[in-house]
Specification:
By secondary structure, the chain is an alpha+beta fold. It folds into 2 domains: 2-88 and 164-208, Gyrase A, domain 2 (2-Layer Sandwich); 97-152, no CATH class. It is built from 9 helices and 4 strands; from the N terminus they run E-H-H-H-E-H-E-H-H-H-E-H-H. It has helices at 12-22, 29-33, 39-51, 72-78, 113-116, 119-141, 146-149, 167-179, 185-201; strands spanning 2-8, 62-71, 85-89, 158-166. The chain has a 4-stranded antiparallel sheet. Helix 8 (167-179) packs across helix 9. The chain is elongated, with a radius of gyration of 22 Å.
Length: 215
């Protein structure tokens, strides 16, 4: 799994503060944003906005992540979060997974820890991946279009995508996939890393993300 924060709203704190103040100020949003308010006052207001659930103000800030080497199983889980979440996914209709196109190599896939920890289980899993590869290759060789041959590919096969979330949505996804126990390990690790990267860029957000990536 590889995740990188590739773009974001330049100044989360000032943007949210200006949005919140606009609702109760005679000053223009431009004046508020450029007014040079102190960080402590902005933090106080933003904390109040979050506590009072005035969360529409958080939607003005977004972060874009490049995600590589995760499973299609993870994608199926993550794509259920639709509000305020955008996705551009590597297409199995147009990107071949055949050994011919990949220099004779088996397609990349994710191995669950419960399988990786046991050599016997790992051997069974590896064989299943190899059989899926053989089936896919045979279908392609027989003239089946990639969009139909992909039905033979497993959920563990790797995929890549770019995703953008507004801050309100990221906090919601974080709560459901990290804070609340029960989410599968892979999607939990991905969302926790997204939060870590954003907090690294916007340190003041740390209190809003209750768990760290390694917990």
């Amino acid at each position: 799994m590889e995740i990188k924060l590739i773009n974001k709203t330049p100044d989360f704190l000032r943007t949210i503060w200006a949005a919140g103040r606009t609702c109760h100020s005679s000053a223009t949003p431009q004046e508020l944003f450029e007014g040079g308010e102190t960080e402590s006052k902005m933090l106080k207001l933003v904390g109040f906005l979050v506590k009072s659930k005035h969360l529409s103000t958080l939607e003005h800030c977004s972060a874009t992540f490049a995600v590589a080497g995760v499973s299609r199983a993870l994608l199926a889980q993550y794509s259920r979060h639709r509000i305020g979440v955008s996705l551009s996914v590597q297409s199995q209709r147009y990107v071949s997974e055949s050994t011919e196109k990949n220099e004779g190599k088996l397609f990349n896939y994710v191995t669950p820890p419960t399988i990786a920890a046991d050599p016997a289980k790992l051997a069974v899993y590896r064989e299943a991946m190899e059989k899926a590869q053989a089936g896919y290759d045979a279908l392609i060789a027989a003239g089946v279009p990639m969009e139909d041959a992909r039905f033979a590919l497993p959920g563990g096969i790797c995929t890549n995508f770019v995703t953008t979330l507004n801050l309100r949505s990221l906090l919601d996804v974080y709560e459901k996939r990290v804070v609340v126990r029960g989410a599968q390990w892979e999607v939990r690790a991905m969302v926790a890393e997204m939060a870590r990267l954003l907090v690294e860029a916007e340190p003041w957000l740390a209190p809003f993300f209750e768990l760290k990536a390694d917990e």
